Amino acid sequence: MIQFIPRHTYENFLLNPKAIAVVLSDADKEHGVVVDEAAVSKWIGENGKKKEYYDANLGEWLAAVHGAKLLGDLFESLSGARVTYDKVKHGAKLTDWIIQNAPSDLSDLAAYLKTLFSTERN
After folding, report:
1. Degrees, nearest 5: CA angle 28-29-32
2. Measured distance CA(11)–CA(74) in Å, rounded
3. Residue 80 has what pLDDT?
4. pTM for the full model?
5. Which of 2, 9, 58, 88 has the most other CB atoms within 10 Å of its CB?
6. Beta carbons within 8 Å of 9's beta carbon, 6+ residues apart
7. Domain extents for the chain?
8. pLDDT tens across 1-43, in order?
9. Cα–Cα distance between 83 and 68 in angstroms, integer?
């Protein structure tokens, strides 16, 4: 049986501006560029509801936005095209940062996973 997470992509759980700023800055540190949380929030605010990322007919923004595409374009834009978002490498770093600093961002995912592995499931 197939199951789907409650958001469009796993990256939708990783859309924490501070985490993104930290990971992107680390990925572009050889150029001495530091991206701050405000720049990430501004970029998301200006771009996050564009049709290439979000269709309001599909639900609320955080669940329906195409998080992976958004992160790809955000990384490219804020790094001056020096950093390409890597789902595996950057996704793991974002996940680690969120677990350490904002674990409640993953609470919906944790609750969903608990239902999948519950012994009370039919």
Report:
1. 105
2. 13
3. 92
4. 0.87
5. 9
6. 66, 67, 68
7. 10-116
8. 777 777 888 899 899 999 999 999 999 988 888 999 999 999 9
9. 14
Q: What span, in angstroms and rounded, lies between the C-alpha atoms of 19 and 121?
A: 34
Task: For residue 55, give every residue at least 6 positions away whose Cβ sits within 8 Å of its Cβ, in sequence order, or none.
Answer: 64
- Within 8 A by CB and 6+ apart from 73, the residues are 47, 53
Q: Which two tokens stand for residue 50?
A: 């564009």
End-to-end Cα spacing for the chain: 12
Q: Which long-range contacts (CB under 8 A, 24 or more apart) does 100-108 make?
A: 101/18, 101/19, 102/16, 102/18, 102/19, 105/13, 105/14, 105/16, 106/13, 108/6, 108/7, 108/13
Q: What does the pLDDT read at residue 90? A: 96
